[in-house]
């Protein structure tokens, strides 16, 4: 199934693969309606589960056939290439039994031995028996694609799969999903969607050096070129100021009154969440709004007299104000507001650096077919100019966050291969 998105993001940075989104659009068309109309149809329910689990994102290479694998994931330990999970008998899973499928999805046991935790079996282990059976029924209908994939390209000693036995003993929690009797049905449904199917914590929960979840659940983390934001209920860096409706709108369209999606999250919305039923989107929103309130230490914003702030303000007026407006309000449901923006207040500026250097395409969803794009400025602005304008944005308009240094920009520029044009 889907390889862990946090590892995918380590590979791709801005990983919205237009070809993939187009190739799976027909496959996932009317998925939510199918879910509503086919409660007793295992295959249709399984198709909905595959969408909710975003299986296609990792098991489809750029320009490749859906689910045929071949996508290289550049993990902190080396390259893992995603497997072919079409019904092809020679190179896919067409010859598998249900028991083999269940072992892979929920227990991390593949045809070649233990799976790497880049495959989020640590989340899928909580799937119900009936959901796994329906998912299997659907996967058997996926057209076969003959594509042999060499999955393990890891260097020694990480290429030794037997070492994963120890990792599983230490970190693999096999407890099934258990509804919380003190919560509503909607919140419990949201928990199942968030914690199990959509496995949001894979990206949004910081990891240890060994790749397992820390105790800082949903508090956000940087993933080579992007920052998966804080999803906790705090007003400064999280979802504290978002209403349940804001969350629903964002997951359905990619935009809301606060922001617009970019990078990896756009892919999640295009391939997965926009196709969920209204009831499931409402459940996800209910789950996140039911999380405990959290406070964070808010830094003191830099004064307007700071040299970097003064330089950044000049750059903002020239480069940014035409779209984001002079007061940073932007355009609702199109161009993100910069005022009191949790993404801007994030401790890490990685996503801001990626967007400012490389630009970003707005989400193109059924609910929002024409997303606004932002151009990249890598070719135009020096490192100190980018650092100054980001520092200004992060310390004005009711924001407060650490300054961005020219060295931070240089590092991001090198990682993204975002070269500046040299004028002669």
Automatic annotation (TrEMBL):
Domain Cytochrome c: 35-143, 185-292, 307-397
Signal peptide, first to last residue: 1-34
Residue ranges of coiled coil: none
Names of the cofactor(s): heme c
SUPFAM superfamilies: Cytochrome c
InterPro entries for the chain: Cyt_c-like_dom, Cyt_c-like_dom_sf, Cyt_C_IC, Cytochrome_c-type_DH, Membr-bd_ADH_cyt_c
UniProt keyword list: Cell membrane, Electron transport, Heme, Iron, Membrane, Metal-binding, Repeat, Respiratory chain, Signal, Transport
Superkingdom classification of source: Bacteria
PANTHER family hit by this protein: ALCOHOL DEHYDROGENASE CYTOCHROME C SUBUNIT, BLL4482 PROTEIN-RELATED
Protein name: C-type cytochrome
Taxonomic source organism: Acetobacter fallax
């Amino acid at each position: 199934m889907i390889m862990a998105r946090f590892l995918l993001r380590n590979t791709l940075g801005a990983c919205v693969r237009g070809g993939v989104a187009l190739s799976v659009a027909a496959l996932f068309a009317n998925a939510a309606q199918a879910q509503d109309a086919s409660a007793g149809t295992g295959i249709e329910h399984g198709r909905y589960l595959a969408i909710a689990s975003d299986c296609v994102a990792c098991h489809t290479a750029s320009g490749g056939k859906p689910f045929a694998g071949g996508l290289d994931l550049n993990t902190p330990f080396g390259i893992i290439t995603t497997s072919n999970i079409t019904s092809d008998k020679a190179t896919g899973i067409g010859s598998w039994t249900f028991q083999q499928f269940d072992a892979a999805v929920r227990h991390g046991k593949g045809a070649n031995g233990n799976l790497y935790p880049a495959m989020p079996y640590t989340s899928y282990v909580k799937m119900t028996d009936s959901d796994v059976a329906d998912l299997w029924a659907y996967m058997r209908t996926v057209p076969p694609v003959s594509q042999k994939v060499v999955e393990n390209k890891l260097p020694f000693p990480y290429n030794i799969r037997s070492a994963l036995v120890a990792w599983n003993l230490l970190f693999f929690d096999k407890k099934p999903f258990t509804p919380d009797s003190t919560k509503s049905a909607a919140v419990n449904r949201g928990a199942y969607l968030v914690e199990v199917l959509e496995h949001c914590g894979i990206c949004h929960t910081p990891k240890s050096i060994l790749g397992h979840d820390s105790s800082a659940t949903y508090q956000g983390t940087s993933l080579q070129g992007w920052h998966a934001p804080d999803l906790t209920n705090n007003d400064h860096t999280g979802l504290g100021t978002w209403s349940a409706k804001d969350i629903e709108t964002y997951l359905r369209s990619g935009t809301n009154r606060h922001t617009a999606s970019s990078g990896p999250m756009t892919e999640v919305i295009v391939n997965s969440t926009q196709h969920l039923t209204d009831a499931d989107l409402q459940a996800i929103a209910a789950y996140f709004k039911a999380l405990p309130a959290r406070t964070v230490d808010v830094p003191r914003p830099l004064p307007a007299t700071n040299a970097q702030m003064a330089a950044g303000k000049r750059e903002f007026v020239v480069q940014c104000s035409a779209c984001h407006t002079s007061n940073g309000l932007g355009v609702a449901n199109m161009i993100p507001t910069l005022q009191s923006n949790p993404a801007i207040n994030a401790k890490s500026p990685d996503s801001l650096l990626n967007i400012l250097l490389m630009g970003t395409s707005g989400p193109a969803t059924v609910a929002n077919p024409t997303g606004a794009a932002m151009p990249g400025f890598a070719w135009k602005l020096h490192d100190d100019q980018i650092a100054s304008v980001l520092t200004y944005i992060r310390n004005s308009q009711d924001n407060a966050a650490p300054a961005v240094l020219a060295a931070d920009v240089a590092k991001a520029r090198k990682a993204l291969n975002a070269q500046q044009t040299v004028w002669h």
